[in-house]
Amino acid sequence: MSWFSSSYNGILLLLLLLLQFSYQLATCGSIVKNLPGFHGPLPFILETGYVGVGEKEDVQVFYYFIQSENNPKEDPLILWLTGGPGCSAFSGLVLEIGPLAFKIDEYNGSLPNLILRPQSWTKVSSIIFVDMPVNTGFTYARTESATERSDWNLVHQTHQFLRKWLIDHPEFVSNEVYIGGDSYSGITVPVIAHEIAQANEEGLQPLINLQGYLLGNALTTRAERNYAIPFAHGMGLISDEMYESLQKNCEGNYIDADTRNALCRRDIKSFDDITSGLNMAQILEPLCEWLSPKPREVSWRRSVTQQFPLKLKNAHLTLPPLSCQSYAYYLCEYWANDENVRDALHIRKGSIGKWSRCTFGIPMKMDIASSFQYHVNLSRKGYRSLIYNGDHDMGVPFSASQAWIRSLNYSIVDDWRQWHTNGEVAGYTRTYSNLMTFATVKASLLSHLANDIHT
């Protein structure tokens, strides 16, 4: 063998080893059998890990994967994004749809306790809870240039994440896949689903068995707040006279009221005053202010990111009452920042500093104005969808979702009816000919999500 041949083979071997190392760094998962704060071994399969995405895989995306507790070989696979933007998927896991929840005990300095949630969606599906965008939860960037956040970066990187994850988990390639999320994820989830569908049509491997998407209390057109005033009137929060004056002076445009006439600005100020102190995410729940030195200013017209700045600031923390749903946020912070917890989750040493449930302080370029056209395109392609709203949410009212769904102009195939759980009316639903189902969820069933459904 010539010197050139042996050198070439040596270089090739080195390159293959480097590629193998890069792949291992990009897609690295570990089974978690025990979690600090939970008594005994976990009764389900939990895997955590990282997938490298973006240029040179400089964004290391952290995920929690929980296999279906029913039949993981055949049950659907859901990729779940928590909204914000910038809130960890851990919120979805322990505060919304996952199999774990915090036991709400008064914090005494010890590690918060975890308990099982019997209504977990993992009873019938496998779920990948993904920390996105970059610098959310345990997801981190290896270079300064990779820290840029935007809607489109989130879309492309999440799509890339899923294909790489499936390469590393070939046993799930044939499973039906759904993309899901809540609140701000209503902007990005339909775009992710559409990008996956297009890539499948172009033959990008591995093919993803995409069947549809699901969204809860989700932004779509960014005009949802125009429906807050009609919602408030319908709920008896403002008088007929105030509502009529708002309609007359603002002409139905309440978002841009600051640039409109003086009478509209006056009426908006009156509306803000009379609805102050309400929890916009769930008007039956207390607002539960808990940050000091002064409470956060809440305005229904502000962006979701501004409206729900619940990032923990230990140096200035005042706790909410134990009965408040937001108490669980406080427990999340202490649990996720414990070194034993990080070791159990296989968090890379030095990858991030303090973990925050939501990273609202990091700029995010909101470069997707509306996801409506992507709903249109996905409907034309025949994908299924589930759109659901809590019926006491004033931030993204159910009437706002109904309005854009109605404008799709599909016929109703299963008209307005009750749906039930545990023998009680859980809400109302209807299904359209484009395989889209809309549902309301009764307030009592969403009480555990109050204050969090918009993050």
TrEMBL record:
Residues 1-28 form the signal peptide. Keywords: Glycoprotein, Signal. The keyword Zinc-finger does not apply. One of its GO terms (molecular function) is sinapoyltransferase activity. The keyword Hydrolase does not apply. GO terms for biological process: proteolysis; secondary metabolic process. Pfam families: Peptidase_S10. Belongs to the peptidase S10 family. This is Serine carboxypeptidase-like 19. The lineage of its organism: Eukaryota, Viridiplantae, Streptophyta, Embryophyta, Tracheophyta.
